[in-house]
Specification:
Layout (H helix, E strand, L loop, with lengths): L12 H10 L11 H16 L2 H19 L18 H4 L1 H19 L9 H16 L10 H9 L3 H16 L23 E6 L3 E6 L5 E3 L3 E4 L17 H7 L4 E6 L11 H19 L4 E6 L1 H16 L4 E7 L17 H14 L1 E2 L1 H11 L1 H14 L8 H6 L5 E2 H13 L9 E2 L2 E2 L8 E7 L7 H10 L4 E6 L17 E4 L7 H6 L2 E4 L2 H10 L5 E3 L13 E2 L10
Parallel strand pairs: 4-5, 4-6, 6-7, 7-12, 12-13
Antiparallel strand pairs: 1-2, 1-17, 2-5, 3-16, 8-9, 10-11, 13-14, 14-15
Helix pairs in contact: 2-6, 3-5, 5-6, 8-14, 10-11, 12-16
């Protein structure tokens, strides 16, 4: 019996796209606390006090602009993408028009104070981030009296919207760490409405389960495909609802598909680090090879899972073992030298503090990390829901990807430290600068064919950083640039008329040179990737009738037990 797919969106399309482009989806990150933010504000104030002339000039311009606003002579208007001021009252009512323009003038002035032309690298990015937190928090639309749409709704509902907003606020205070909920979770249940592609768990180890998917074709490719999801995310971003599942799509193309489902670790796993996770992945490759009879496998690795997979390939290359025939790296950052939200706070002091906090707890707590992620895009992931849930008194809409984003896993403290070391030292760009499982890692020695996908608007793993990854590896590389953000680049099923991607078979010296010569294609990269993988998946054979083999027997149906864990 076909499972009912949850209603995808009560969210307007532009809001959904904004939220999807903003979620991190998530990555090993420097776990900040409020002290870091206040320290950054202190640095900003100290900098500005050394530039009194700059302060005086900016203040004079602001006063002049405010005077023009007061007499109705200002032409200041919000950017077309800024939906906070979409209510017509902001243009038709003189008071609200002046309120909007005054806020925009002040916001522009505050950000302009930071753009002094001095390049401070990460410090400049930190200052911009802190200033964004301040200016977006003080938008008039975040307050009841400053939001005409909320006032109208309260009047139209005879105050019921305010009562509903208060209930939502109290519920989030109790159950969501005081953050406004981004999604209505009620329609979703993993294994019933999400992650429903048929399969079986055929292996369970300390750190992961392995799921083998039931073939939907009479014949399958001889070389299997193993999905390696990020260690801090549930694997089912690649197996959302039917017709939105890359796993379902790949199985229908005749690929023998397996996936890793990582354990959600508690503090008792604090000592498990990069070596342990690479060893678990190596064991997974052995299991998949034993079940299928294939001497080697293909990998499909996502984000942080791509880092782990690359370390494994470097380890195998050092041993002279060719166990990975071809690999696909999706939105994977191997070179942390490119500025991004992931690297912004990766300083010696912040990394040291983040490691100390996770070691004290035993894990990098997924719920705490999710709150930090949200504040990286405050308008889309905090204040948008503040207004919707509390001022308007509405429930957040049900949306499968946002549900998945809220269902992340912890990282063991040692693994967190390992990822932060990669982020801070950037050792993968220099051969033999890191050792895994007793072998030095030289990515140029990895000669497997590679398909590297990046997202054009990805603010987590910038597409230029992903391009650098393509240049580090020694095999034949197909680099593809998808036209959207971090998570949207993963969930890109055929049939979406807005989807586009860029290809250029020749790697150029720089990412921008590559893009200048790239061709734009309408449609989904899934189809392009499947054709690429077809040529690297061996001959056809009869599909297996049962999952596993005599050694690895089915333990339970997919999606397994680890995906449901709540430590």
């Amino acid at each position: 019996m076909a499972l009912a797919q949850p209603k995808a969106v009560e969210i307007p399309p532009e809001d959904a796209a904004s939220a999807l482009d903003s979620i991190l989806g998530a990555n090993p990150f420097v776990d900040l606390d409020t002290r870091d933010i206040f320290a950054t504000f202190g640095e900003i104030a100290s900098d500005l006090l050394t530039q009194p002339a700059r302060l005086f000039t900016a203040g004079g311009r602001l006063l002049t602009e405010l005077a023009e606003i007061a007499i109705g002579a200002s032409a200041i208007a919000p950017e077309p993408s800024d939906r906070r001021f979409a209510d017509p009252t902001f243009m038709e009512n003189p008071f609200y028009r002046a309120l909007m323009q005054g806020y925009l003038a002040w916001r522009t002035t505050m950000h302009g104070l930071l753009d002094d032309g001095r390049d401070r690298g990460k410090a400049a990015a930190q200052h911009r981030f802190a200033m964004t937190l301040l200016t977006e928090a003080l938008a008039p639309t975040n307050f009841f009296l400053g939001n005409p749409a909320a006032l109208k709704r309260a009047f139209e509902t005879a105050g019921q919207s305010l009562l509903a907003g208060l209930r939502n606020f109290l519920d989030d205070l109790k159950n969501n760490g005081g953050m406004p909920s981004q999604v209505d979770k009620r329609p979703f249940k993993v294994g019933e409405t999400l992650a429903v592609t048929p399969g079986s768990v055929i292996y369970r180890g300390e750190l992961c389960e392995i799921i083998q998917y039931a073939p939907s074709t009479k014949q399958v490719r001889t070389r299997p495909l193993l999905l390696v999801p990020p260690e801090i995310n549930k694997y089912y971003v690649m197996d959302l609802a039917p017709k939105r599942s890359l796993i379902e799509y790949a199985v229908a193309r005749g690929f023998q598909f397996f996936t890793i489902s990582w354990r959600n670790p508690g503090p008792e796993y604090a000592a498990r680090g990069l070596n342990d996770y690479v060893a678990a992945l190596k064991e997974a490759v052995n299991v998949v090879s034993a079940i299928t009879g294939s001497r080697d496998v293909n990998l499909l690795a996502v984000c942080a899972g791509g880092i782990t997979s690359t370390l494994l390939m470097g380890h195998l290359a050092a041993l002279g073992e060719r166990r990975i025939h071809a690999a696909t790296l999706l939105v994977t950052m191997l070179d942390s030298g490119e500025p991004s939200a992931t690297t912004m706070f990766a300083t010696e002091e912040n990394v040291r503090s983040a490691c100390a906090r996770s070691r004290a707890r035993g894990v990098l707590d997924a719920a705490s990390l999710a709150r930090i992620f949200a504040w990286l895009r405050p308008n889309d992931l905090v204040w948008n829901y503040w207004v919707n849930n509390y001022l308007m008194g509405k429930d957040p809409a049900p949306f499968d990807i946002l549900y998945w984003n809220s269902d992340s896993t912890n990282l063991p403290a040692e693994l967190h430290a390992g990822f932060l070391d990669l982020l801070l030292r950037n050792p993968l760009v220099t051969p033999n600068s890191i050792e895994i499982l007793g072998t030095p890692i030289d990515l140029s020695a990895v000669d497997s064919d590679l398909y590297v996908l990046a997202g054009l608007t990805d603010h987590i793993c910038s597409w230029r950083s992903c391009y650098h990854a393509a240049q580090l590896l020694g095999g034949r590389v197909e680099f593809v640039l998808n036209g959207s953000g971090h998570v949207q680049s993963l969930v890109s099923p055929p049939g979406n008329f807005k989807s586009r991607y860029f290809t250029n078979p020749r790697l150029a010296p720089t990412a921008d040179k590559w893009r200048e010569a790239a061709l734009e294609h309408k449609g989904s990269w899934w189809e392009h990737w499947a054709e690429w993988l077809d040529h690297r998946s061996g001959d056809w054979r009869e599909a297996p009738r049962e999952p596993g083999n005599e050694t690895y027997r089915p333990l339970m149906p997919a999606p397994g037990a680890y995906v449901h864990q709540r430590p």
